[in-house]
Amino acid sequence: MKRILPISLCLVILITIWACTEEFVGPLLNADFTQTRLLIAKGDTITFGDKSVGKPDRYEWIFEGGIPPTSTDRKVLVTYEDTGAFDVVLIVKREGEIDTLRREQLIKVFPSSLQAGFSADSTNIPVGTEIQFFDQSSGDVQTRLWSFEEGTPLTSTDKDPRVR
After folding, report:
1. Which residues contact 96 (CB under 8 A, 6 or more apart)?
2. Is the peptide bond before 68 cis (omega within 30 degrees of 0)?
3. What order of strands is seen across the sheet that includes strand 118-120?
4. Contact 92, 31 (CB under 8 A)
5. 139: buried, middle or exposed (CB in 10 Å: 19+, 13-18, 0-12)?
6. Residues 6+ apart with CB under 8 A from 37
7. Report field, pTM of the whole predicted structure over 0.90
8. Residues with Cβ < 8 Å from 48, sequence gap 6 or more?
9. What is the pLDDT, as a whole number, of residue 52?
10. Of 26, 92, 86, which is closest to residue 59 (Cα–Cα)?
11. Rounded-to-integer distance, Cα 160 and Cα 119, Å
């Protein structure tokens, strides 16, 4: 009888430990992510990556204004073609658990970078001769303002002005 009690007690302890480890699957889910940038130019791409706690096995991303607009991958490349401020949502799941992280207006997209440039149909002309300028600027050009010292006209908002 003396030996049965310690053996019984050991069996109870082992069964209890085994039962507890079967139910415990790890820390609670906590959705979290990283992104390579927060401020980008129109047309640029950002990489989003999961860094959630709790070992999720399913992912649902929602990228407001992004291409693609949704994904189920753990790591995602997203391009933004419109200007503005956009939300990002990550939903993570594991064995009946779910957690959601929404970061509002996280990504700020501004118009593409502008680079002024021009050419002319001639660079060596006599006084009073007309010259044609050609806008070769890059980026999302909204307006132009040309200034011609001693030219006629003195200024122009045309894309490719002619000046005398």
Report:
1. none
2. yes
3. 118-120, 131-135, 162-163
4. yes
5. middle
6. 44, 46
7. no
8. 33, 34, 35, 61, 63, 75, 76, 77, 78, 88, 90
9. 98
10. 92
11. 10
**Could you report the per-residue pLDDT of 123-157, keeping only the tens digit for each?**
888 888 899 999 998 877 888 999 988 889 989 99
The rounded distance, in Å, linking the Cα atoms of 116 and 111 is 15
Structure tokens at 5: 């009690």
For the chain, residues with pLDDT lower than 50 are 14, 18, 21-22
Report how far apart, in Å, the C-alpha atoms of 22 and of each of 11, 28, 66 are: 16, 15, 41
- 152's tokens: 């006629």
R_g (Cα) of the chain, nearest Å: 32
Q: What is the DSSP string of 124-141?
A: S--TT--EEEEE--BS--
Phi and psi of 147, rounded to 5°? -130, 125
